[in-house]
Amino acid sequence: MALGRLSDTTSKGVITAMKSIFVRHGIPDIVISDNGPQYASEEFRSFPESWEFTHVTSSPGHAQSNGQAERTVQTVKQLLKRSQNDAGDPYIALVEYRNTPLESVGLSPAQMLMGRRLKTKLPESTSLLTPERALNVHKQLKAKQAKQKKYYDQHAKPLPELHKGENVRMHFGDKWKPAVVLEKHIQPRSYVVSTSESRMLRRNRRHLRQTAESMFPPTAAESNVDVDMNCEKTPSVDKVKSHTQSLAATLSSHSCNPSTLAQPYRTRSGRLVKAPLRYNV
């Protein structure tokens, strides 16, 4: 775990902090982050190319897809809070954490990274500070993760895949809004969908529900819709334009044609609902 203090959260500040970590530990193959605006700028997009690593973003609104980083942030916050409450030095707390053995492998993070323990304020034998090669650590960590997966899967089941053009309900705040699947995203269990406001969003499969509705009722445009794609692979401009025009024409016909509004539609439970008759006057 590497910890650094940022003077600001701009792309430039984040890139500088990441470079500082890279020169100490080396350039990683893959960097996983959330979908913050500092990771979507043109300045940051050129950073992985120049330093030759792959940047992957987690599913928007689904922190569990980046669970390892989220858990580390929680641990750091607890260390800083306890250190502040005890009027102690947060850096000493961080050293002690790095020197504490993990239950699954019996080695501390420092031992797995550098092959030795860190010298702290506590008295330690010189032999404990001598580098030693850690064996079978990766195998033990994999066994621990497999055990966690086994217990998690006892109360979970894989969701069926969605297909292009399928009508779904997308979780948005405390509501489930209508949407249409455009394509499967390059990241696992993620899809690119289009809402009734012709907005394209990337969402995790967990936030999308299949529906038996054959036709969605028209909805008024909302200005606070979350526009968060951050896709490594996005549809072509012609494809987006064609779909947007088609969807807009469909919604326009539903909102302006009284006979179309009067047509019934089915809800997710299969109940037949007759839309009210409205005129644009």
TrEMBL record:
List the transmembrane segments. none
Would you kindly state one Gene Ontology biological process term found in this protein's UniProt entry? DNA integration
What InterPro entries does this protein map onto? Integrase_cat-core, Retrovirus_Pol_polyprotein, RNaseH-like_sf, RNaseH_sf
Q: Which residues form the Integrase catalytic domain?
A: 1-139
What Pfam families does this protein's entry cite?
A: rve (PF00665)
Question: Per its record, how is this protein called by name?
Answer: Integrase catalytic domain-containing protein
Natural source organism:
Acanthochromis polyacanthus (spiny chromis)
* Molecular-function GO terms, alphabetical: nucleic acid binding
Q: Superkingdom, according to UniProt? A: Eukaryota
Q: Which PANTHER family match?
A: INTEGRASE CATALYTIC DOMAIN-CONTAINING PROTEIN (PTHR37984:SF7), PROTEIN CBG26694 (PTHR37984)
